[in-house]
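Hey, quick one: can you model this chain's 3D structure?
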Amino acid sequence: MAKGGSRRILGAALLVAALTSTAACGASSDGAGRAVEGAPGPAAGQQAPAKTAAQLRAEQRAAVEKQRAVRAAAARKWGLKRVPLEAPAPPRTKPVITTRKGFETAGTGLPPVFTTVPTKEKVVFLTIDDGSDKDPELIRMMAELKIPYSAFLSDYVVSDDYGYFEKMRKSQPAGVTLNNHTLNHKYLPGLSYAQQEREICGMQKIIEKRYGKRPELFRPPYGNYNEDTLRVAKSCGVKAVPLWAAEAFPDHMEWREWDQDLHPGDIVLTHFRGKEEWKGTMPDMIRRVMDVITSKGYAVGRLEDYV
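Sure thing. Here's the predicted structure for all 307 residues.
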């Protein structure tokens, strides 16, 4: 080959190499460590650079702010005067629950009966009894507001629509728990041991069959019980008997304590009721109770995280 041809080939090769090198350097950085348009991604088989702690914190803050905005929008949609406060993180170790003074029976080693969970956090717990009214708006409202609650069910009023409570349970898998309120809502101290066993353990079996888990919490109808009640409950898997410190209605609150106020760890009771039985709907009742709870600086926690 002639010398002129060799020089032209060599020059072309050098030019191509130089252009390739410049493109690779210029596309990856702008001189300040920032990626620029056209920068190549990681090569096949290589991982992208790990996010820095600052980047992770920024992403977490953004996620929290987004959740707060969604909750604020839900509060406006459902007519709440205030956005519900965020509950504190559940305790790593659940507090020791003991029977409230004056609520004891002569028996020992029985499930504790209590109205308030021992905690210093400004958190209360919402519980709803029986299952008579089955308003689909309640499920949607609570799910959109992300308010946890515990339902205590009686079979004589839920058996016509078990599916409603399955939808309720699935609406907030980590926020709604279905518990025991007996088969027929009878006055338990007036029943024999065997009759109480049918009422309590019979409902345990139904909830386990229908919803996949045997409850560990049980509330006696009207809050009335005797030693047989607690012995029966323990025999079929009940670990605790939460009563209540306050009761919510669509138009007012009723209080157990003399100061007529909320306290850290209080359990709030309400019922599945509609306009036929009281002055308002289930969403009306939630609006009322949440405005009271929030105005007093409390958040709603999940009872089963503490008991």
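One thing worth noting: Confidence is low (pLDDT under 50) at residues 1-39.
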